[in-house]
Amino acid sequence: MEFCKSTIGKEKAQFGALKLAEYDGQLGKGLHNNSVFSIIRTGSPLRIKIGPTVYDFAANELLFIGPHYEIGVAEPITADGFLLWFTADFYERSKADTEILNSALFFGSNPFLSMRDCRTDLIFKKLIVERLTGCAEYLAIDMMIAHHCFESLLLEGYQTMLSQEISCGSADTAAVQLFNRFTVLLHKHYREHTSVQYYADRMNISPRKLTELCFAVTGKSAKCVISNIVAQQALRYIQHTDLSISQISYELGFSDESNFRNFFKKQTGSNPLAYRQI
Hints:
Blueprint: E1 15-19, H1 25-33, E2 37-42, E3 46-50, E4 53-57, E5 61-65, E6 71-73, E7 81-86, H2 88-91, H3 95-101, H4 104-107, E8 112-116, H5 121-133, H6 140-167, H7 173-189, H8 196-202, H9 207-218, H10 222-240, H11 245-251, H12 257-268, H13 272-276
Antiparallel strand pairs: 1-7, 2-5, 2-7, 3-4, 3-6, 5-8
């Protein structure tokens, strides 16, 4: 396995790299449970499940996926590419690092950000993967090299994100940046707070302004954006955990199970138990 010696089972594991062909559901849950940030580099056309949805990707794509989404690889044995991961504690060393991690690169309105990688498979493996797998002892120099590897990829992704925002015809850059701030707050606090008023207060704007902002960027109301995030997390719990419906409703901050069932039915058209059996 092309993977730093610090495996998921060790408490101090902070980053790693592995072949997609060696990725499995158990490892995926281990990564997800440790709230890691993920970068996938495809070496061939692949089908990848991010959260509850399966996406088709071409070869030579870089995918940036935040810590709130579980990842699955269809037919991993034949999958060609790499998965890199790291924790926020490892990466955040400056205000710039924190800004990038909390940007739309990982917390946008979509589950992932993708970009074309112009490097060949061999160059990516030599410049990124082999350097990461060589940082086995967590010495000071190892940490510097690993941080540099991730930083180079994140800066590429961040630049792509900014160019996409600038070219966005439905909303200006300032509006997109403000919306990104909303989604970051939402992913951090949706379990405790689902009111538009709460997020508007945190952003020092009125609820009406926040709703107008969401309509301008996504075509949806602020309440709809909040509900969509909660529904996505509910689907993830139902599909990828053994928690009871009652436990899931508690994890998502609902006052009782019946409220959660009603919410889920409204969002998906199905009840939670029926959805789990699909």
